[in-house]
Write a structure and sequence with these properties.
There is one protein chain. This protein folds into two domains: 255 residues, 3-Layer(aba) Sandwich (Aspartate Aminotransferase, domain 2); 120 residues, Aspartate Aminotransferase, domain 1. The protein is built from 16 helices and twelve strands. The strands form three sheets. The protein has a seven-stranded mixed β-sheet with strand order 1-7-6-5-4-2-3, with helices on both faces. A three-stranded antiparallel β-sheet has the order 10-12-11, with helices on one face. Strand 8 and strand 9 form a beta hairpin. It is globular and about 80 Å long. It starts with 16 loop residues before the first helix and ends in a 6-residue tail after the last helix. Bound molecules: pyridoxal-5'-phosphate (PLP). Pyridoxal-5'-phosphate binds next to helix 7.
């Protein structure tokens, strides 16, 4: 096989700052005192805070070393399925940091924030065009927040018609946050099983759809990385009983500029700007989950809304049917700037190309690995592909062992044990930003790991062996949290 990335070498150990401290060592110099000294009252300040005494170089090395223990998309391939961990062009970060944007106070009068308002107004238009929907709110702060907004919109729609519906259909290939968002709106989730091809059949939906059901929440592409091909017929069935179709569009990275969600029967859809549109994520940083709707749901969108009149932008609360406010001010503005900058710099063709390459890369991996891993749904995938550890069962090697060993080859593990419909799932999403060379290295590393599973299974069970820490207790941090430091 080709040379692996390797993970050992000059990654240095690092003690706590308090362990490095040497009394009297100092990392700064301040001008000589030119006033009389004044004794502090020791009863008030006691011994003072327990700060370590460190030199400047101690501090710089400490934090630099810690940063090198981290792994991110700027370090290497990060193939977490369902997460779209792609490289984000740094120029978009730079635009978001421009002082006029980063320093704008949300309480400034609109006469001084015309640029920010214009950006948000135009971004709404771009997202409407990309999704094929009619109107957009940028307020929700995350995907799940967008789902909640979407469910509230669906509730408001039915209430306006004088109906109160109690159920919502959620397929087994939906994202895990979907039923949680539905239940926050007091909807009972009605599960539907996907068929032998890993997608929903219109018959299964017809069986459960009735006039008590508010609608359906479909993740499309679904969590198996497959496009819900029967979506048009499914939408017809749901609409014929007065229901609405919610699409979890967090996986837009596979279909930008390719699928028109409005035309295929979607009524409301959220996007994750912190997946597809150039905000890095993981670690819980700020995100944005805009919600795009069809005309009939527009009156219910959250306020304030951005209005354009005679070239002037303003904010309006004058939407009596609105579900209200969902976020302080207008959402996470910096994330919106990055999305705007990304969309403009890519252009329509560029966005479509990004999706095409993301899909090509995932299919390439699927084809290259399907001889060594069990592939439960052997059909063209979208931006991610899902294997299981069934072929490794005779060697008593599990998904966990495989991906832990992959770390020794310098790759972040893919998503594992999700989606739940695949036992021992290994879910790989390369994204469009990986080159063929990188993807080939990743494929080679996985092939090597599978070979080792046969020849030296114990090695896999001990993995990772080349990292700073070995196999950790997966649940200790959650079960016995140490909150005092
Ligand atoms: C990531 C994701 C979500 C949740 O988004 P958050 O921003 O983490 O709340 C929902 N649905 C799908 C399909 C996703 O991939």
């Amino acid at each position: 096989m080709k040379e692996s990335l390797g993970t050992s070498g000059l990654i240095l150990n690092e003690p706590l700052l308090w362990e490095k401290s040497k009394k009297g060592r100092c990392g700064f110099s301040i001008p000589r005192r030119d006033v009389d000294s004044f004794p502090m009252d020791e009863n008030v300040i006691g011994d003072g805070p327990d700060f370590p005494d460190l030199s400047e170089v101690d501090v710089v090395r400490h934090y630099t070393r810690l940063s090198q223990w981290n792994f991110g998309v700027d370090t290497g391939m990060y193939p977490l399925g369902s997460c779209t961990m792609k490289y984000n062009p740094k120029t978009n970060e730079r635009q978001a940091g421009l002082p006029g944007f980063a320093g704008a106070h949300p309480l400034l009068p609109t006469s001084l924030t015309q640029g920010a308002l214009k950006l948000m107004f135009e971004l709404e238009g771009f997202l409407a065009e990309i999704t094929g929907m009619d109107a957009v709110t940028l307020q929700p702060a995350a995907g799940a927040h967008g789902e909640l907004a979407g469910m509230l919109l669906i509730c408001a729609f039915h209430k306006d018609k004088g109906q109160s519906r109690s159920k919502i259909i959620v397929p087994d290939t939906a994202h895990g946050t979907n039923p949680a968002s539905a239940s926050l709106c007091n909807y009972r989730s009605i599960p539907v099983k996907s068929n032998e091809h890993g997608i929903l059949s219109s018959e299964a939906v017809a069986e459960v759809m009735d006039e008590e059901t508010a609608g359906i929440m479909v993740t499309n592409p679904n969590t198996l990385g497959l496009f819900e091909e029967n979506i048009i017929q499914i939408a017809d069935i749901v609409h014929s009983k007065g229901g609405l179709v919610y699409c979890d569009g967090a996986n837009m990275n596979a279909i930008m500029g390719i699928a028109d969600m409005g035309k295929i029967g979607i009524d409301v859809l959220h996007l994750n700007l912190h997946k597809t549109f150039s905000t890095p994520h993981g670690g819980g940083g700020p995100g944005a989950g805009p919600v795009c709707v069809k005309k009939q749901l527009e009156p219910f969108l959250p306020v304030p809304r951005i209005i354009a009149k005679d070239g002037e932008y303003s904010l309006s609360d004058d939407f009596p049917e609105s579900i209200g406010k969902l976020h302080a001010f207008y959402g996470n503005f910096g994330v919106l700037v990055k999305a705007y900058s990304y969309i403009l710099s890519m252009g329509a063709k560029g966005l479509k190309n990004a999706s095409s390459l993301a899909v090509l890369n995932a299919n390439y991996i699927k084809e290259q690995l399907k001889d060594i891993f069990d592939l439960p749904y052997d059909r063209p995938c979208m931006h991610e592909c899902v294997f299981s550890d069934k072929n490794q069962e005779p060697d008593k090697i599990t998904t966990l062992d495989i991906v832990k060993r992959l770390i020794d080859y310098g790759f972040h593990p893919p998503t594992i044990y999700f989606p739940l419909v695949v036992h021992g799932a290994i879910m790989i999403e390369p994204t469009e930003t990986e080159s063929k060379e990188n993807i080939d290295l990743f494929i080679d590393a996985l092939k090597q790991v599978v070979k080792e599973a046969k020849e030296d299974p114990e090695l896999l069970r001990q993995a990772p062996t080349r990292t700073k820490v070995r196999r950790l207790d997966e649940t200790a941090a959650a079960r016995n949290p140490c909150l005092t430091g």
